[in-house]
Every structure is written in C-alpha cells, then in structure tokens.
From TrEMBL:
Keywords: Calcium, FAD, Flavoprotein, Membrane, Metal-binding, NADP, Oxidoreductase, Transmembrane, Transmembrane helix. This is NADPH oxidase 5. The chain crosses the membrane at residues 582-601. One of its GO terms (molecular function) is superoxide-generating NAD(P)H oxidase activity. It comes from the Eukaryota. The lineage of its organism: Eukaryota, Metazoa, Chordata, Craniata, Vertebrata.
C-alpha cells in the first residue's frame, strides 16, 4: 500500500513521464501510454487506456490522465470498486451490434478469442458499459490474469476457476454479475477491500524498484547475537597479530624500515615467517565438519569459513607488500649510508647481513608473486565467466608457497608443523576416498529450468547428516574439476544418493547438455541400474512415496559415466534438529538441503508411528529426543514460476499426507509456497484470479498451481508479517535457515535481527 505522500510522489512521476513521451501535441496514444506507465503490452493496458480516454478521441491528454488517476487515488470506495467493475465488463456497451470489443465463445464454453481493439468503456460521466459481467467476459479476464501472472493451466482448469468465481458472485443466479453482487463478493475478502480502500494507485504503479532491506543497526543486542562468532574470531585474530607485531618491535632497533620488515614477518598472516598458515586451515573442511559436533562449533564462525579465508588472504597480501616494502626501504638506506655500493648491489647480491635477491629475499619474492596471482585469479569475474580452471590451477600453487616459505624463514616450520599435519591427513583421507573406485550414476532425470537430477550409487561406508554436501567429479565432463553440491536425499535412503544440480555455470551446463544427447540406444537397463531402481521403488512404496518420476535417461545410454565424490561436509543445516522452532527458507534450487531434512523427518514419522490393533487409529509419538529437539518447523519455498515447483512436488505431497494423519497437538510442519511471477492480490490485474484460486482451493482442498493442499501465495513474502506470525506462536527459540541468493539473504538477515531470531545461511 501507498501513503498519501507516496501517492502524490507517484502522480508527479506520472506527470514527468507523460511530458517526456507526449511530445508537442500533449496527447498520447495507446503505445505511448504503455511506455509512459511501463506496463506490459496486455489486455489490461488497453482496458486502462479505454477507461482514461473519456472523450473517445483515441488519445489521452494530461488532463484526462491526471483526472482519472486522482479519482482512483482520492475517490471513495465506491468509485474504486466501480473502476474495477468497468475493467471486467469487457463488452463495452449496451448495444451489442456496436461493440468494439468482440468476445467469441466456442460451444464448449470460454474458448473466447479477443479482437484487440479499444472498447468503448468510460469512467463515470462517459458512456456506460453493459452494466453486468457475463460468464464469457469473466473467462476472458481470467485468461489474461493467468498470462499476466505467468501461470499455465489446462483449459478445463480455467473453466473451473471461472465457474467457481461466477457461482460465488452471482447471488441471484441470474446468469450475470452486477456491480452490487461484485461488491458483496469482494467484501468477503477483507484484504482485497483494504487494498482497494487505502490506495488504488498501487494498481497502476510502475514496476517496483529493487526491494530495499532496512539496514541493520550495528552494536545492537540482536546484531551481536547473530554475529558473535565472527566478531570473536576477528577480534582474536587481530589481537594475535598485534601481540606478535609488538613482540617483534621489542626485538629490533627503533628504525622504521628495520623494525617494520621483521615485524610484519612475525604476524600470523604474513607469507614471510607466518606462525600459522591460517588461510589454508580455514579450508580444511573435514576438520571443520568434525568441529561442528563439538562445543567449539557453536562458538567459532564455521558457517563463514570461506569468507574468513578470503579476508585472511587479503590480509596476507597486504602484510606481504608491507614486509617487502620495508626491506626495500632498508636496502635504500644502507646504500645511501655505504656510498660505495648501489641499491642494485643490495638487491641482487647474497649478502648474509642484509639478505637480497641472492639470499633470503630471493626466496621471499616468488611466494609473494604466487600469492598475488592466486588473489587475482580467484575473483568472481574469473571463476564465474567460464575460466574455473585458471582459478583452480593457480590456487594449487599454495604448495610452492609453503615450500619457498620453509626455505625463506628458518623458523617458519615451527608454525607450520601442526596445521601442516592436519592438512596432510585431510588430503590423504580425500585421496583414499577417490582411489577407492568410481561410483556409478544409476539414473538421470532432466527437470524443468535446466536442473539435472543425478541418482548415484551410495557406498556402504558413506555416512552423512541431512543437509550435508559433497564434492563431485565426473571425468566425462571435466577430468580435474570438483564442484560442491548439496545431497537432496535423506540419510535413511541406503542404496542411492540424490543430487539436484541447477545449470548456472560452464560445468553445470556441460553436465546438462551431456545427458541431453543419448549416446546410444539400449533396450534394457543395466543390471545394477535395474536392481537399484527396483529396490528404490520398493522402499518408496514402504514409506508411501510414489516412484513415478520424469522419464529417466538411464536407458538411453550404453553406460552412464562414473563419478567420484569427496565428503560429506557439514553445513549450518546440521543445527536444525537441535532447534526448537526452525524456519527453513529455500529460494529456487535452494530447497535441496531442506529436501533432505524434510525427507529425514518423514522417515522418523514412519519409524515412530503407532496404531491401535482394535480400532486401527494411528498416531505418531513425540519426535523430540536427544538428537532432535524440534517443536515446530515452518518451511518456506520461493519460486519464480510454476515449473520450478515440479522438482519436489511429490515429496511435499507426501509430507502433507503425513501431516493430515497426525494433528492432535497442532501442525508440526507447516509449508508456505510463494510464486514471485504471480501478481499479488493488491494488484488489480490479479484480484479476480486470486479470488477464483482461493474459492476453488477451498472447494477442492487442493491448490490449482501445485496440486498441494497448501495454497500457493502470489508475489514475494512480506517478511515482517511472516516473522511476526512466527514470533506470536511462541514455540521456542526461533532459528532461521536460508539457502538462496545473497541479495535475499540480506533482507531476511535484517528481519531476523529485528525480531531477535538466529540466522544461518548456506555457504560453500
């Protein structure tokens, strides 16, 4: 909704747009009208234009435009309702032979084709419409509502929506809807009436600017609560650097350059005499996964280990530059004092007393160059522009850096031995996994929006937690590339692992394209593939999941390629089962970690389900135990369009069925679906459609968009209302887990700090 001040600002914006487009004649036609208001070329743009053109000239003057918009902004509720009615009354006049908008209806009902001419409807004071809405007119309007919201439904479903809304609004069963009947029906939807009453300008406002999240206040209790681990790490790291720097200052003469050179080499970040190779330690994922299971996991910022790795890398390069600069200044000072030797002599001679490129500094320059190359080629513009190999191979130079540092600094080994041993152990374990043999991909499904669903043979010794991720290597795609992907299957699924991979980069696109083209026909699936698929079908039948899926590509290949995995590695999602009230938010393919978690919850339901042998009444025991403290789970899935819901709709359907069987203590799992391409109820172009969808969902107990019982909400979530409702439930301490875009993460983090919720985001 818009305040009075915002409405006035909007009117000024319209005036400015009009002046820039109308030209010297100060009139705009239909095409210019679309451009001025930045609305789509659609049925509704033509309806608005027809209603604003009060003199029927085929053009709109600034006076006509402002008069019409002022009526909508400052008019009464009846004025705004009548405008809505006129938009839906598309026949354009009481004289059917003089209609400019023809509606052709096939014998089957609303197969109408609309002739795109301007109808002769007017605002109050101009020629009136027919005064009633026929079923065919309503069908036409709903068809355009579906197109505006990017929703594709079968023709029969459109008829059902039309019938549901028409039967509800046609109170006297006369076969048409009058203005009074539409008004009475709208009163049954208070949220629609509220939006109509507060600001009709929101109907026609230009596309909203990027959603601005309220900047979180620093130094508040909620901010410290959400960032305490990161702040503690940064504070400790900074203090350690300052402490070692101060100790080095006391050991050297108080000359600026002479003091700075060895002092910087004593800082934990410096590549010269680094007491701790911290950047590499922060990427020991197996060690970090182990730490998550210890009390230290709650105190350390393990979820931000990649960001900390990047930050420490920048500090390393800065201190390396300061260290080198100090030595250069020292050589220059010595050359000036000596008088007999030039600066080049100190730089390129191996003098024990000062170093030089022929001495210790010769072994200090190359690692600094390698570090600079690593930093340059690790930027997002390199990694995400199809040059991942450059990032990968330059980052492998850390081995050369360590070797040169061991030669450069005589005391470096003291600081390297412990983290170096951890690094060697981690790499040895990873190599053991990789050399154990490749795993067979037993099934591939290509899903909407270029998502590749891989079903991989699961090793018997592979154990993981819900929400964990692995590194995947498929030599047929790229021999040396390893990429992280979340496991979307539950740990209770013993035979296979699921991965859902969205095509967003070079490697993922090559993967999708590889399976798009069958290699050779194969009438019979391979024995292992057939066996695993039969077992999976039996297991799904036991837990109640349908084994029907999109057509598999397993039969289209002579032999699916082998793959190698490295992991599993823990994520913030491991905290979910230790929460009291968990809010899971997935945006698009960000649902994958939560798919694993929701499936695991379903398996636990099955294990604890009890039934009475006499009356066959079934119930589920309390799920809470030492490993699972959950009292309530709110699952929010945000998708751009309708097709994206097809990825996990069968799983969500089964979860709803489980919920229907266990309701005595209130709903343990509550799902919320949002479709951002669909226009919300406060948009006039969607009011009729959303009313029809609500009516039909209530009647059939099924959502028309997804087929779930949960009604899909149009537009983006109002996070203030969503989290306000969560806070009112008071089901325990709330922790919010998010997987999706960084931009949306900032918005949700700000709201979490406002309500005092803990916030966790998936990082790879």
């Amino acid at each position: 909704t818009m305040s009075v001040g915002e409405d006035a600002e909007w009117l000024r914006w319209v005036t400015k747009q009009f002046g820039s487009i109308a030209g010297q004649d100060k009139e705009i036609n239909l095409e210019e009208f679309r451009t001025a208001l930045q609305v789509k070329e659609s049925f509704f743009a033509e309806r608005f234009f027809a209603l604003f053109d009060t003199d029927g000239s085929g053009t709109i003057s600034l006076e006509e435009l402002l008069k019409a918009l002022s009526l909508l902004v400052h008019g009464t509720e009846m004025d705004k309702l009548r405008f809505l009615f006129q938009v839906y009354d598309v026949d354009g006049g009481s004289d059917c032979t003089d209609q400019r908008w023809k509606v052709k209806v096939a014998p089957g009902g609303c197969e109408g084709a609309v002739v795109h001419q301007v109808p002769a409807l007017r605002l109050p004071g101009a020629r009136a419409g027919s005064g009633c809405i026929e079923p065919e007119e309503l069908c036409v309007v709903l068809r355009w509502c579906l197109r505006e919201s990017a929703i594709a439904l079968p023709e029969q479903r459109l008829r059902d929506l039309t019938l549901a809304l028409f039967e509800a609004a046609d109170k006297d069963h006369s076969g048409s809807i009058t203005f009074e009947e539409l008004k009475e029906e709208l009163e049954a939807f208070p949220e629609v009436m509220e939006n109509l009453t507060i600001s009709a300008a929101s109907w026609l406002k230009p596309p909203a600017a990027a959603e601005r999240s309220r900047r979180p206040r620093r130094l508040t209790r909620a901010y410290w609560h959400n960032h305490r681990g990161t702040l503690a790490f940064l504070g400790g790291y900074t203090s350690l650097n300052l402490l070692l720097f101060s100790l080095a200052l006391q050991l050297h003469p108080p000359s600026t350059s002479l003091t700075l050179a060895p002092s910087t080499s004593s800082c934990p970040s410096s590549p010269a005499l680094a007491p701790l190779p911290l950047p590499e330690v922060l990427m020991l994922r197996r060690c970090l996964t182990w730490l998550r299971a210890t009390p230290l996991g709650k105190a350390l910022p393990l979820d931000q280990h990649v960001a900390c790795h990047q930050l420490v890398g920048y500090v390393v390069l800065v201190l390396a530059a300061a260290h080198t600069g100090a030595h250069l200044a020292n050589f220059s000072r010595l050359a000036q004092q000596d008088g007999r030797r030039a600066l080049a002599h100190y730089l390129f001679s191996a003098l024990p007393e000062v170093g030089g490129l022929g001495g210790a500094s010769q072994r200090g320059g190359p690692p600094q160059g390698l570090l600079a190359a690593m930093l340059a080629f690790s930027s997002p513009c390199v990694r995400r522009s199809g040059h991942f190999e450059v990032f990968y191979w330059t980052h492998l130079s850390y081995i050369s850096v360590w070797t040169l540092l061991l030669l450069h600094g005589p005391h470096f080994w003291k600081w390297f031995v412990v983290p170096g041993c951890l690094f060697v152990l981690e790499k040895v374990q990873g190599l053991a996994w990789r050399r154990a043999g490749g795993l067979r991909i037993v099934e591939v499904n290509l899903l909407p929006s270029k998502v590749t669903h891989l079903v991989i043979e699961r090793p018997q010794s592979f154990h993981y937690k819900p929400g964990d991720y692995i590194y995947l290597n498929i030599p047929a795609i790229a021999t040396y590339e390893w990429h992280p992907f979340t496991i979307s299957s539950a740990p209770e699924q013993q035979e296979t692992l699921w991965l859902h991979i969205r095509s967003l980069g070079q490697w993922t696109n090559k993967l999708y394209e590889y399976f798009q083209e069958p290699k050779c026909p194969s009438p019979e699936p391979k024995p292992l593939s057939r066996s695993l698929r039969e077992k999976r079908g039996q297991r799904w039948a036991q837990v109640g999941l349908s084994s029907e899926r999109s057509p598999s590509l397993a039969d289209c290949f002579c032999g699916l390629p082998q793959c190698y995995i490295d992991g599993p590695y823990g994520t913030p999602a491991r905290r979910i089962f230790g929460s009291e009230h968990a809010v899971l938010i997935g945006a698009g393919i960000g649902i994958t970690p939560f798919a694993s978690i929701l499936q695991s919850i379903m398996y636990r339901y099955r294990r604890r389900k009890q039934s009475c042998p006499s009356c066959h009444y079934s119930w589920c025991e309390d799920l809470r135990d030492e490993e699972m403290m959950l009292r309530k789970v709110d699952f929010i899935w945000i998708n751009r369009d309708q097709k994206h819901f097809e990825w996990f709709v069968s799983l969500l359907t089964k979860l709803e069925m489980e919920q229907a069987e266990q309701e005595p203590g209130g709903r343990f799992l509550e799902m919320h679906m949002y479709m951002t391409s669909a226009l919300s109820k406060n948009d006039m172009k969607a009011i009729g459609l959303q009313m029809a969808l609500d009516l039909l969902a209530t009647k059939e107990q099924k959502d028309s968009i997804t087929g779930l019982r949960t009604r899909t909400q149009p537009g983006r979530p109002d996070w203030s209302k969503v989290f306000g409702k969560v806070a009112e439930e008071k089901r325990g301490k709330v922790q919010v887990f998010f997987c999706g875009s960084p931009a949306l993460a900032k918005v949700i983090r700000a709201q979490c700090e406002r309500f005092g919720f803990r916030f966790f985001k998936e990082h790879f």
